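Design job #97: recover the sequence.
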C-alpha cells in the first residue's frame, strides 16, 4: 500500500525540522569552538606576559588576634590583647631544591606574639623561617637554615613549644611505615668559649591498621656545652636549676645540669561518627640530671577538626614537667607560665566560622613550683601555686 500524501508531507516536515536542529547544533558547536579558541589564545597570551619565575613561588601567611587573661595565685591578674602575623613564600629552585622564607612578629624565640601596647608603636618583624631543602630522592631530604622542627611531635604535646624554629642542619628519611631523622642545632655561638649545640635523632613507625592510624617513636636529644654555661635567652633559665659555682667566666648564673633527653611517644587516631578522634602519650627523661627532677610526660585526646566551614574540635591534655626534665628554652611559653617545674591540664576548643577563619579557646588549669617552693611577699613559702590562663583567638589564614 502506498503512503498517503498527508503522511508524506508529515515525514518531509519532520526531516526538515531535524535538519534545522542539526544545523543549529552545528552552528552552536562552531561558535563554542571559536570561543574556546579565543579563550585558549587569551590564556596563552596572559601566560606569556607572566615572568618565568612567578609559577615557582607559593605565597602564604596568617594573622591571629588574641585576648588573654592570666590569673596567678597571690599575684595581680592580667588581661591584655596580642597579635601574631606571619607571611612568606616557598620558592622552587629546581626539580630537587626549594627554599622557604617567612617573616613574623615576635617577642622571643618561643613566641611570635606582639602585645598591643606602647602608645600605638609599630611592631617588630623578624626572620621566622629561612631554609633550603634538597630532596634528591623521594625518601630523603636535607634541610639547612632556620627551619620547622625536623622531628615528629605527637598530638597536642607542648613539651616542645610550637613556635620554636631550630637553626642548623637536618636529614629526614621516610620509607613505607618507617621514618627517621637526624639533626644538629646551634643554640649559642661563642667566638672563644665554644658553641652550645643540640644533636639528636629520631626513629619511628606509622602504619594504617584498618581505619585507624598508629604512630610509635623514640628520640634522643643530646645538648652539648650547656652545663655550667648561661645558654639561655634573656637571662632566664625558664625554671631550670641554676648555680653560681663552677660557671664558665662571665656566664654566672649558669645551668647546673646537662641535658641528655630520651623520649618515647605513641599516637592513635581513628574516625568516630564521621570525625577524627586522636589520642597521644609522650614521655621524657633527662639522663644527665644530677638531681632526681628528671621526668616529663604528657597525654591527651582530641575529637573533631576545625578545618572546613562549620566544623569543630574539642580536646584536653595533661602534662607534668619536673624542674630539670627538659631544657626549658624549648618548653611551651604559655603552660605553667612558660617554665619547667609545673603540671596541669589544658582544655581546647575550636570552630571554623568560614573558609580560612577559625575561633579558638584554650584554658590552662596549671600549678607551678611543684618541685621547688617560691617565696611570696606577705604569704611565705608556696608550693603548687595555682596558675590559670584563658586565651580566645581569631585565626585568619591565606
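Job complete. Output follows.
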Amino acid at each position: 500500500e502506498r503512503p498517503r500524501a498527508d503522511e508524506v508531507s508529515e515525514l518531509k516536515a519532520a526531516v526538515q525540522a531535524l535538519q534545522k536542529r542539526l544545523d543549529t547544533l552545528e552552528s552552536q558547536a562552531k561558535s563554542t569552538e571559536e570561543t574556546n579558541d579565543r579563550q585558549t589564545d587569551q590564556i596563552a597570551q596572559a601566560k606569556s606576559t607572566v615572568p618565568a619565575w612567578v609559577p615557582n613561588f607559593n605565597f602564604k601567611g596568617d594573622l591571629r588576634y588574641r585576648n588573654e587573661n592570666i590569673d596567678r595565685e597571690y599575684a595581680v591578674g592580667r588581661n591584655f590583647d596580642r597579635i601574631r602575623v606571619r607571611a612568606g613564600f616557598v620558592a622552587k629552585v629546581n626539580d630537587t631544591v626549594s627554599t622557604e622564607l617567612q617573616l613574623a612578629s615576635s617577642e622571643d624565640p618561643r613566641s611570635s606574639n606582639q602585645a598591643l601596647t606602647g602608645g600605638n608603636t609599630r611592631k617588630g618583624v623578624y626572620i621566622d623561617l629561612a631554609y633550603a631543602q634538597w630532596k634528591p630522592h623521594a625518601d630523603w631530604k636535607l634541610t639547612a637554615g632556620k627551619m620547622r622542627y625536623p622531628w615528629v611531635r605527637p598530638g597536642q604535646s607542648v613539651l616542645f613549644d610550637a613556635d620554636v624554629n631550630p637553626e642548623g642542619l637536618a636529614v629526614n628519611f621516610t620509607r613505607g611505615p618507617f621514618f627517621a631523622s637526624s639533626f644538629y642545632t646551634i643554640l649559642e655561638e661563642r667566638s672563644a668559649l665554644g658553641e652550645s649545640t643540640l644533636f639528636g635523632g629520631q626513629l619511628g613507625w606509622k602504619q594504617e591498621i584498618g581505619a585507624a592510624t598508629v604512630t610509635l617513636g623514640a628520640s634522643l636529644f643530646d645538648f652539648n656545652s650547656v652545663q655550667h654555661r648561661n645558654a639561655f635567652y634573656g637571662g632566664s633559665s625558664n625554671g631550670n636549676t641554676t648555680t653560681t659555682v663552677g660557671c664558665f667566666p662571665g656566664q654566672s648564673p649558669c645551668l647546673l645540669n646537662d641535658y641528655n633527653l630520651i623520649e618515647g611517644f605513641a599516637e592513635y587516631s581513628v574516625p568516630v561518627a564521621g570525625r577524627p578522634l586522636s589520642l597521644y602519650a609522650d614521655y621524657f627523661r633527662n639522663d644527665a640530671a644530677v638531681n632526681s627532677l628528671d621526668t616529663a610526660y604528657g597525654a591527651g585526646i582530641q575529637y573533631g577538626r576545625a578545618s572546613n566551614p562549620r566544623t569543630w574540635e574539642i580536646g584536653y591534655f595533661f602534662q607534668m614537667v619536673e624542674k630539670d626534665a627538659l631544657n626549658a628554652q624549648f618548653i611551651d611559653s604559655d603552660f605553667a607560665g612558660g617554665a619547667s617545674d609545673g603540671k596541669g591540664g589544658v582544655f581546647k576548643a575550636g570552630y571554623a566560622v568560614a573558609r580560612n577563619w577559625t575561633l579558638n579557646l584554650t584554658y590552662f588549669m596549671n600549678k607551678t613550683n611543684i618541685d621547688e617552693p617560691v617565696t611570696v611577699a606577705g604569704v611565705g613559702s608556696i608550693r603548687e601555686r595555682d596558675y590559670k590562663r584563658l586565651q580566645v583567638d581569631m585565626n585568619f589564614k591565606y
